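User: I'm putting together a teaching handout on how sequence relates to shape, and I'd like one worked example. Could you take Adenosylmethionine-8-amino-7-oxononanoate aminotransferase from Shewanella marisflavi, show the sequence you're using, and then write out its predicted structure as tokens right after it?

Assistant: Happy to. First the sequence, then the structure tokens directly below it.
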Amino acid sequence: MSSLTPIDHQFDKEHIWHPYTSMTQALPAYGVVSASGCELTLEDGSKLVDGTSSWWACVHGYSHPEILEAMQKQLSTLSHVMFGGITHHSAIEVSKKLLAMTSDNLTKVFLADSGSIAVEVAMKMALQYWQGRNAPRKQGILTVKQGYHGDTFAAMSVCDPEGGMHTMFGEAVTKQLFAPAPKTPFGEALQEGDLEAMEALLETHHETTAAVIIEPIMQGAGAMHFYSADYLKGLRALCDRFKVLLILDEIATGFGRTGKLFAYQHADIQADILCLGKALTGGYISLAATLCSDEVALGISDSPSGVFMHGPTFMGNPLACAAACASLDLIAKNRWQDQVAAIQTQMKQQLSSAREIKGVKAVRCLGAVGVIEMEKSVNTGKLQQAFVERGVWVRPFSKFIYIMPPYIISENQLSRLTQAMLEVAAIAGAQTNEAADFISHG
């Protein structure tokens, strides 16, 4: 369909679900007709600097020629084939690249089709592993509050149980164990007592706990919080002490977002099971991966079924694997290191004044992530409109006005984003009748 074809917004509003949106009070959906570099082009011809990397995935920008070429080449030969009993070059190549760039203990790759499924796979791996190690009672998962791991049912069970997005599902969601969220900020030595509750839970429940799952260094959609690498080091030691697997969810943090290739590298630890997604393909098509150690794979193979019980229809999709190979080749060139460092420096400088804005609780920057945390939840729709009027795409949620721009963003484009964040935060924080709609009352 041509980009000149008018977008049928009425049909969209009446019939198409968008993420976390009501069908009776839908948020506005802006019509995008093309994208290139760091810009989205709307149907009226206006352009928006993208501050979200399309939900943290499009790290190389849009229409990157190397990724497009790889996908077009794959599309012309083999766009999809079942992975049961069949293999292909692109799946082998992307798996080789992932094993080469992650920690040495990770030797096995399961290729799924979304981040939530990568988490589901990781949790199932942990449970099956302990069945193969004659410890079938180890079926629980332990995690921390304020986390987010996806929208499917097992993933929901380890999302924040109090203020998270999935609290309304009640008894339908498996009850897991939750320790308090890490308190020690990133860059600081571990505060006394920060791991005590986690240690106490493991002491009491290790015989029925299969794994601990956590987002390393950055809690994303649950809190936009950066915590101490020392917490991760201590958690790894506790998992070893109590014989519990450690699952690291790097779906949001992987491939350079926090300033290291993987966030766990800030703590110099290894996962037993590692979840990857989002930027894996550069944001061009959905693909995720769950990596595990030889020991985990052997335990699963020794379980009563003898095989790992999961196999999505689009597992190892050739087109997605080809895109991932091209994206990982771009990552391997290491330009992202200088790009992410420059983004962090510029954001820290330009967002620092937000601390003086009324209604702002905190300002945080790490790698290519910049966050203004408000004291109150914001009105996403109203703030979204204010950002579009300023020529940028920023998608606030809860109390957070944040950006995770593509790594290729220019200084000028990033300045437009940070300036818009300051202006909109000031509007949201103002206690006047005119600005009242910018604060969420829900």
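A couple of points you could highlight for students: The chain has 13 helices and 16 strands. The first strand starts at residue 32 and ends at 36.
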